[in-house]
Design a protein that fits this description.
With 290 residues, the protein is mainly α. It is 77% helix and 0% strand. Helix 6 runs antiparallel to helix 7, helix 10 packs antiparallel against helix 11 and helix 12 packs antiparallel against helix 13. The longest helix is centred in the middle third of the chain and has 37 residues. 44% of the residues are buried.
Length: 290
């Protein structure tokens, strides 16, 4: 549990940097999205061979995502603001399956849990940088403009490259992996600090309470319930069932803040939602005596 809480140290550093030096959050977002995250993607996917026996894990996860999307969309129609509706619909489905999901899954189930979480995180990356980006961009851009922005995001293309290399059993040597690891760790730290920067700018209004409430409902009730029912109906074995459900329950990913900043979709609000869902998630872990 100490290791999980420890990652929030970098969030505090980002918060302090914004308060003391007025750091520009969007500059960090651009640095992370276009330069550092490709390193993270390559490193993460090339860490271990993809086990074909576990390939169904991300398929089950995405099945839960797209099924839950129907219900999160319908519930979010209660909100008046178009951008609020997009936030409440999509952000609960983009969980912190990497920075938080992988280490916690490893804590519970060892190497097997880490492998499941890594595969699910890969699926989450493709969801974020394809369908997710298009959905976020709808708040301010036309279909053509949104599509142009999607194809310019390098993470998706590096993810495809890494996946192809892994499936063809082509691997980097130890020196290259160390270089990728440096970039990957830099990406993780930068993302956490970006979160802290936007937390420092949070100004919650009374009319934001509905957005917070509906997002929490969609994240911890709708998405988790849909995931539980779907995995049960599909007869997923218990060894795979609980790691997948844990990834579904992870709090909002910091990537949501990056996308919100890139597409002018209330990044301060999204930062607050990440903070709230993270607090709820950690509380749930404490309650089950992690």
């Amino acid at each position: 549990m100490l290791g999980v809480i420890g990652i929030y140290v970098f969030i505090v550093l980002g918060f302090l940097a914004k308060k003391q030096f007025k750091i520009d959050g969007k500059t960090l977002v651009i640095l992370s999205t276009y330069y550092l995250q490709p390193f993270l993607t390559l490193w993460g996917i090339m860490l271990m061979p993809i086990n074909k026996d576990l390939i169904l894990a991300p398929v089950y996860y995405l099945g839960a995502v797209f099924t839950a999307l129907i219900f999160t969309y319908l519930i979010s129609l209660m909100l008046k603001d178009k951008k609020d509706r997009i936030i409440a619909t999509l952000t609960p489905l983009i969980g912190n399956t990497g920075n938080l999901g992988i280490p916690i899954s490893y804590f519970f189930w060892g190497d097997f849990g880490a492998m499941v979480a890594t595969l699910i995180n890969l699926a989450n990356i493709f969801f974020i940088y394809s369908f997710g980006i298009f959905f976020f961009a709808k708040g301010e851009y036309t279909f053509k403009e949104a599509f142009k922005k999607i194809v310019k995001i390098p993470v998706m293309w590096f993810g495809i490259l890494a996946l192809v290399l892994n499936l063809k059993d082509i691997h980097f040597n130890a020196d290259i992996m160390k270089i990728l690891q440096m970039g990957a760790f830099a990406s993780i730290v930068t993302q956490l600090m970006i979160f802290g920067v936007y937390i420092a700018e949070i100004k919650i209004k009374a009319d934001d309470k509905a957005l917070v409430f509906i997002t929490l409902i969609n994240k911890f009730i709708v998405f988790v319930f849909i995931g539980y029912v779907l995995l049960t109906m599909l007869g997923v074995n218990e060894k795979l069932f609980w790691p997948i459900l844990l990834e579904i329950a992870t709090p909002l990913a910091i990537s949501n803040v990056n996308l919100a900043a890139l597409f002018n979709l209330y990044p301060q609000k999204v930062s607050f939602l990440v903070l709230v869902t993270s607090a709820v998630f950690l509380l749930l872990l404490l309650l089950i005596k992690v």
